[in-house]
Amino acid sequence: MNLKPYGDTALLLDCESLDEAQRWFAALHDEAEVVLGARSVLLRGDPAALRSLVGRTSPVATAASLDGPQVEITVAYDGADLDDVARLTGLTPAEVVAAHTGTPWTVAFGGFAPGFSYLVGGDPRLQVPRRDSPRNRVPGGAVGLAGEFSGVYPRESPGGWQLIGHTGLAMWDTAREPPALLRAGMTVRFVAA
């Protein structure tokens, strides 16, 4: 792990893996304002105090310490790429759905767009590449897979993930506090509609 300055009021823990970043996040999230990334943890505050905090802290033994509240997301598994995902994984479409719903996912970090969360820890058979050619328009609520991740598009946007279904649940709602439905450490259970 490398500790780097990040402007005048922050430090960045540059980690070697998502697991290491999650373990540092779990160790620090009650002690400072922190934001988890794919392989980093951003700490906001006085850099000298943050350096001291990191120096006297060790990452937790396992990222499972991130266990947070569970959110259930109902999905209609009718995505444009469901058959392609089945072909890529060697599963039937019904087996893809069973794999996606059969294992809890963990919110690793947010990014790409407000309300978009990268979910990890699902069935490893569902690891598929991004599409060769991204779409110009992916509808809000689309549920997709890419690499080790699953996610739900919070609004219409371009995107290159393999789409397996959609949900009507709002991932981002400025009338809700906090606006993002999913936050790092939460557990997500997908349920077939």
Automatic annotation (TrEMBL):
List the InterPro entries.
CT_C_D, Cyclophilin-like_dom_sf, PH_domain, PxpB
Checking Gene3D superfamilies in the record gives: 3.30.1360.40, Cyclophilin-like
- Tell me the Pfam families matching this sequence: CT_C_D
| Keywords for the protein's UniProt record, in alphabetical order | ATP-binding, Hydrolase, Nucleotide-binding
Give one GO molecular function term: hydrolase activity
Q: Where would one find coiled-coil regions in this protein?
A: none
Sorted alphabetically, which SMART domains does this protein's record hold? AHS1
Do the record's keywords include Glycosyltransferase?
A: no
Ranges for domain PH:
1-33
Protein name per Swiss-Prot or TrEMBL: Allophanate hydrolase subunit 1
UniProt organism field: Aeromicrobium ginsengisoli
